[in-house]
Design goal:
2 domains, alpha/beta, D-Maltodextrin-Binding Protein, domain 2, globular
């Protein structure tokens, strides 16, 4: 009788085990011996952003002790510039990864590398949570492919103490900027620090000059490859840029440093300002942050409305992890727990919620005001055009900044890439 009982118990255990294994892919159940697995991949741009993201993930782990969470970090600059093959994507992206809105998101969706979140978005009613602009930033051909995490302003951050010392006006108009460059240059100071070894930081100058001279509609057409770079409109953009270069606006060592290496030159008074996204403030020393002020990029043509760069960062799900219970639980936590607002405050970014929330940082307050009052908003050069166009174009812009190319040469080369990438002759 005892042998029969032991055989019966063993048979029941085998049946239950096989049944659980057969249904694991359909409805995974977390147990102490078989916890749900979740791999989160990020590529933070600085220590402040990384700490903010890791704090949110840590809080999630406390709320979901049945999920085994693993974090993997890619170096931001290297991963963004180096393309990942379709075969490598499954490993490189993990289950959930932090990514970019705009064309960069569309490129992944076109390759079927990321999950369609439309059903989950509708079920959770997130159209009532996020702004229309944010929802648009994660929509590709009427389908939702990401969760909008944050957005942030670009603009000019400058040392008030230096501006006061030399009686410099706020940079409201282009003439104010050139005047400040000339005054500071005589004192051995550059108005702007910049590191062209990070070409995307140079592209910010192209974005703003084009937006202030030619407007948003023209800029968007250019990003889609519909406008030739060999045009009088773009010659004008580079002519203004050349005026700034010739007026001594940029730090001399720009060719040898990255954007991060350029910042201490502003901290130590070698330069007095930087054109950058608000994310960098998260890593600025407190003593310097107290001395910083913010202004939008100056007006060039009074007939052009004020348009601003405001990149959107997103959370994307790997195609292989579609329907993963741990993934869905994490996404719901990010959107609905209130942690997203706190994470973004720490990362010096704005949360794209419809419902207003309190802001206690002066740069976040000014950024929110700036973007709400802008006539239109765009992403950023390497998020608005294809990576095949953006990467070589930004390198060419860096060469122009470093006076390795003339206006005619840079426009000619940009046009050759445009024709190659977009297959257009004019």
């Amino acid at each position: 009788m005892a042998k029969f009982y032991r055989f019966f118990v063993l048979l029941i255990v085998i049946i239950i085990t096989q049944y659980s294994y057969a249904n694991e892919s359909l409805s995974p159940v977390s147990t102490p011996l078989n916890p749900l697995q979740l791999e989160i991949v990020m590529m933070p741009i600085g220590k402040g952003q990384r700490a903010a993201y890791e704090q949110m993930i840590s809080d999630f782990k406390v709320s979901a002790p049945d999920i085994n969470v693993r974090i993997r970090v890619h170096e931001h600059e290297q991963f963004k510039r180096n393309s990942v093959s379709d075969e490598e994507a499954s490993s490189a992206f993990g289950d959930v990864f932090f990514w970019f809105g705009g064309i960069r998101l569309q490129e992944l969706s076109n390759k079927s590398l990321i999950a369609d979140l439309s059903s989950l978005w509708t079920q959770r009613g997130w159209s009532e949570t996020f702004t229309e602009v944010a929802e648009s930033a994660v929509t590709v051909e009427s389908r939702i492919f990401a969760i909008p995490l944050n957005y942030y302003q670009w603009g000019i951050y400058y040392r008030r103490s230096i501006f006061e010392m030399y009686n410099l006006s706020e940079l409201e108009h282009w003439s104010d900027l050139i005047s400040a460059c000339e005054v500071l240059s005589k004192q051995g100071i550059s108005l702007f620090t910049i590191g062209s070894k990070s070409p995307w930081s140079v592209a910010g100058w192209f974005d703003y000059l084009n937006l202030r001279i030619n407007g948003l509609d023209y800029h968007n057409k250019l990003m889609r490859g519909e406008v030739s770079y060999n045009s009088t409109s773009l010659y004008k953009v580079f002519k203004y840029w050349k005026e700034a270069i010739d007026s001594g606006c940029f730090i001399n060592s720009r060719n040898d440093i990255t954007w991060k290496e350029a910042l201490p030159l502003m901290y130590h008074g070698k330069a007095s300002a930087v054109l950058m996204g608000n994310f960098f403030v998260a890593d600025v020393p407190l003593s310097i942050k107290k001395d910083l002020a913010f202004s939008s990029f100056p007006i060039i043509d009074n007939n052009i409305q004020r348009y601003e760069n405001a990149p959107v960062d997103v959370l994307v799900i790997s195609k292989k992890s579609e329907g993963n219970a741990a993934v869905n639980q994490f996404i719901a936590y990010v959107v609905e727990s209130g942690s997203l607002v706190e994470m973004n405050k720490a990362a010096m970014k704005l949360t794209p919620f419809k419902e207003r929330y309190s802001l206690d940082d002066k740069f976040l307050i000014e950024g929110d005001k700036l973007l709400r009052s802008a006539k239109g908003i765009t992403q950023f050069y390497d998020r608005n055009t294809t990576s095949e166009m953006a990467t070589p174009a930004m390198d060419l812009m860096a060469k122009f900044l470093n006076q390795e190319l003339t206006i005619d040469e840079v426009l000619y080369s940009l046009e050759q890439y445009r024709r190659h990438v977009f297959k257009k002759e004019s």
